[in-house]
Amino acid sequence: MTGYLRSVLRHRLATELSLGLVAVGGIAVGTGSVVTVQILTAGAISAFDRTVDLVSGDADAVVLGHGGKLDEELYPVVLATEGVAAATPVLETTLLVRAPAPNPDAKAPDLHAPAPFRRVQLYGLDLLSSPEIPRYLAGSDAQAAGRQSGSFGAIPDSPPHITSLGDAAISGGLARELGLQAGDSMEIGYGPARTSLIVSRVLTDQAGPGGGPALVMDMHAAQEALGGAEWITRINVRFRSGYAPQEVLARLADNLDGGALLSSPEEQRREAERLLASFRTNLSALSFISVFVGLFLVYGTTRASLIRRREEMGVLRSLGATRSQVLVVVLAEAGVLGLLGAALGVPLGFLAAQANLESVSGTVTDLYLLSAIQNLEVPGSVWILAVVGGLVGTLVGAAGPAAEVCLTPVTALLTEQRVRGRWRAWAKWLWRGGWLLLAVLLAWFAAGGRRWQHAGFVVAGGIMVWTALVTPKFVSALCGRVNPRGFGWRFALRSLSVRVHTSGVAVAGVAIAVGTLVGITVMVGSFRDTFTTWLNRTVRADVYLSAAAWRGEADSGGIGGNLASELRKLSGVAFVDRLRGFGGYAAGLPVALRGVDFGLSALNGRYSFLDGDPGAIAGKVRAGSVVVSEPLARRTGLWEGDFVPVLTKTGPVNAEIAGVYYEYGSERGSLAMDLATMDRWFGPGDPHALAVYLAPGIDAEAGATVVRQAASSYPVTIRTNRSLRENAVRVFDQTFAVTLLLQGMALAMAAAGVALSLLVMAREESRETAVYRALGATRRQVFRFFLGRGIGLASLGGLLGLVGGAGLALTLVYVTNRAYFGWTVQFGIPTFNLLQQGATLALTAVAASWLPALRASSDGAAEARYRAPASGRLRAATGQDPEGGELR
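User: That's the sequence. What structure does it adopt?
Assistant: Structure tokens below.
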């Protein structure tokens, strides 16, 4: 049988190239979509791991501070704890950097000016007290040449060159962007403070932390550059050998007395993976739908090949081949195509990942991690996933046609009517099974399955399977009612019900692809409408100012001076709202902490609450309560009236939750309090943002111009209400840009399914086509007949896909979004987008039908007597020459 299999593969490459390409292409697109998601998310985790390795090294535990800051006085406390071998402080914050003017006589640039500057991460490390430099600082430029990789060596013999005040190492990408090299000077800004530094080292791209723009300095030098800061952000702790880790952690907790949070690098990695899990899982689930659609392409391809070889299979069986041998040959033949498709899917997925790198990296840095994706790699696990997914998907898709050939009696292999009759019987059972499956799933979900986080994907998968199961009966019943009038469009539709064993599979593939398109489109459209409505309700100020280095959750310098007071004095300004924001911990989870003047918030509707009177809630917040975002409430299970522990400067404080507000910025969650409460819990500080409300009748652009003039000496970013909303919507669109790739792949799979089905039908009906031609049908009529079939397949698939897509959209909006992201999304129908996609599907169907219709109409009479050169394959398999040498 091995010789026969080789002969079959050569024959398919020679005579069935188009079918093989469709199958391989479908598998490649399906696996490629999965590979794309895996590569991008693996790149994000890898970038974060690089940052964790940089700031944590081989620490056994990490001491984290309240509000992103840790009192320096805790350092000797940690170091003196029994069982602690070493303790290393780390300072991490966000600041601005720019190269100075190239001409020494030129006017010195200001950080607040519109000239280019860059927001970067600063890492202050205790390089003098540690004999080992973090390994991601190794491999830098020529200044580091000759040093031991990964180490500075002994400090007296090999000074690190970045431990002096005013010296800093910068990442290679940042150096290229600013045109800097070792020995050059640069300016940094932290809040109102400005400092000049010397570039002492330029790190290679592989050595840089997290793959993003960064500065690395000695701890003391970094504190001086920040204006004499007396705080750090973490302490890395190494345990002594012979001490049980849990005992050392317990002693640390007792000594810190609630003034800090204990964690570990591994827990931080798990938190990063958890943050990305929702993003990754949702994209992975949607990408696997492409693999599911690929099953139908493999089914159609395998069946088309076996149709041409039915007589050959009958002769092979009659010469002694067992059913299991035939099954192995057919599945092995399909497996080869699956491996080829998987092999092509990996580079295709890599190219797609590169094309979407910028948008996904922006999403990751805006919503999840601070580390940008810089380098993409294909991990070994992705190859394994592609090969296993492609191979398993191919074997599952080919199993049906292979079983059909094996189970059909030898004498019936030429009796096609038997196949048609059997399929009509199966269609009824598949129809009943589909509705039974859907009923069982919905009953399970209602009975308690909805409490499982992944329940939405189970329901979504059930909807896709239901779509596939009910399709044959749907096609048979709908097309069977068409009354044909001549050899035209009606006859083409009616013929689909006769050949439901082929058309049903094609329509199912198109329906699932269309359902994916509809589900994603409605979900994204509903979310976008909800997001913009939320923006319109909460973004009420006319002009917004924020510290140029502020990122929302990462610590950075605030807006120094008395800018808020100066703005209040301007003519035309009604009032000014202040905001402090930094990262912290609530209920043991990392969250974004917000401090707002709730005396003004009650008037301007800054927060939109799920329930309750905003005025009453604001009163409670001014008295010391807090409000939490919906994602945080769903993560912790804490709602209005409950108490949430917040890590403050003096230890944990149990704060009452006065209300829960809608938020769509991140599923990490946030917690807001009054500015007075924040100052009491975390110490006073400068605001990070200001919201300026103009008096009625004042033009926003004119008011913004006045505000810019008043803030000209401050390093701030100024946006009008309109520009802020536009930027927020741009970030939203960037977040969901990768779904366009999945939609495009689904559309490509639908087109491939239509083309494949028409090719299969053309080969099944070669004799019938010849009879049509003999009875007087012209080539144009045959062409229109097959073109009408293609349009009919796409139309039926689109109609059924709308139903399945509606169910998928409801599941994504009301179940999956809440389970994974904690967002309440209002369901909406993006009519224009759906109509646009419908028109695209129709044009795609016509294009996909064109070549098969042209081929079927080119010479129908010649196909009446199809000859398959099978004698060589049978001789190779059995050693016998079948009578006649050829099969007819």
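The two ends are 22 Å apart (CA to CA).
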